[in-house]
Design goal:
By secondary structure, the chain is of the alpha+beta class. The chain contains twelve helices and 21 strands. The strands form four sheets. Strands 1, 2, 8, 9, 10, 11, 19 and 20 form an eight-stranded mixed beta sheet that branches. Strands 4, 5, 6, 13, 14, 15, 16 and 17 form an eight-stranded mixed beta sheet that branches. The structure holds flavin-adenine dinucleotide.
Length: about 425
Amino acid sequence: MMLSPVTDSHRSFDVVVIGGGPAGTTAATLLAQAGHRVGLFERHSFPRFHVGESLVPAVNLTLEKLGVRERMDQIGFPQKHAVQFISPKGPSRPFYFSEVRDPRMHNTWQVLRSEFDRMMLDRAVECGAHVETDTPVIAVCSEGDAVTGVRVRRLDESEDVIDARLVLDASGQKGVVARERSRQKLIPGLENTAVYAHFEGVQLDPGIDAGSTLIYRLDAQSWIWFIPLMGGVSIGLVTSAREILRFGQNRDEILQSAIDQCPALLERMSSAAVIGEVRVARDFSYRATVDGGPGWAVIGDALGFIDPVYSTGLLLSARSAEIAALEVTCALAGDQHYPNMHGFSTDWQVAFDRFLPLVRAFYTEDFRFGELSKHEAHRQGLIDLLTGIVDTEEAIGVVDKIQQMFDDEAASKS
Ligand SMILES: Cc1cc2nc3c(=O)[nH]c(=O)nc-3n(C[C@H](O)[C@H](O)[C@H](O)COP(=O)(O)OP(=O)(O)OC[C@H]3O[C@@H](n4cnc5c(N)ncnc54)[C@H](O)[C@@H]3O)c2cc1C
């Protein structure tokens, strides 16, 4: 992979980005393309494993801006044309993205994150960002309220202070700056845990359905993701952190027992075997209540995360990075040395709030996609949301309808 050499001129930047995941690399590439001096520091060496493999098509628009859309097929990521929900009562009709109006979003990709994140990091370097991997940020530097830079540690154990007019925290769930300053709040009722692995020898559907995401619902609290990847399929159980041990005592047992409880999935897996290890992730949903301040802003998972059921993580991460990059460009043109980024994420918050009721609805006892999508406008709204489009009349109509359902239920209980 491409890396930048370290020289004395790399101790001061317009913008320092913490973390080389999709949020960090999106912001670094856009800011470097806009002519800013950007330094990105990533604690791991790449390629590295990461969960979060299914894109929604609205991400394509960001990939286009970054200049990497063509590379997705060149790398060979499977194309994803649809998502389908399978409950114990039977499957929904697949939701094909070709039903949305904009042809740029008629399909997207399922990504092996080691390859995807490496490609994104390479793009940031190509566009002029200075990138150092194996270099964790170990402290945030400040003067009064303002963040003035970061302290990093390199592989040889040497430490450096890196100055910046703005520090973007894209360090994911770690939230290096976010944990100190953003007052992250858990979203109650979505305290879930995921147990997952890659499998080989799994039977896929034929034709364009081969790359679809399948969501197998076990009960109101538990479901399994099925994401076809290059050379395997990612399969993961998501369930309430309180319920997880009812599936088994260790991670291998938990995942196998969940699969065993799902006949529709089991029949695809008669010749399947795990590749590598079974992993566990906490996927609690949360959001920052403060998105930025003088000299700093948080983006990506550091800003917030919603349950993975609709694969919205990378979309929201990329969106927050795009919004931040635009705001940073305006802010750096002003005369504040450490511009105040407080409130930059309003549009991102709107998107988050539109997905949240749909996520909550999924975890209710009697939620069925088929029921909601019987009404044509609601079906269109659902497809828009599953594509990652949150601002059409139909998408807002679905969100309002679900919210109404929750309000009526609350009123009937009071
Ligand atoms: C179980 C589960 C399933 C998911 N499935 C999906 C899915 O199917 N589709 C989807 O879109 N999203 C999914 N997500 C969400 C997705 O993984 C995240 O939204 C996405 O990775 C966030 O990108 P990011 O760049 O903000 O953070 P990350 O991708 O986590 O990147 C953060 C980077 O910061 C680095 N870092 C951390 N600390 C430091 C430090 N101190 N110094 C330097 N670098 C540091 C890390 O090494 C990492 O590379 C899922 C999440 C979970 C938990």
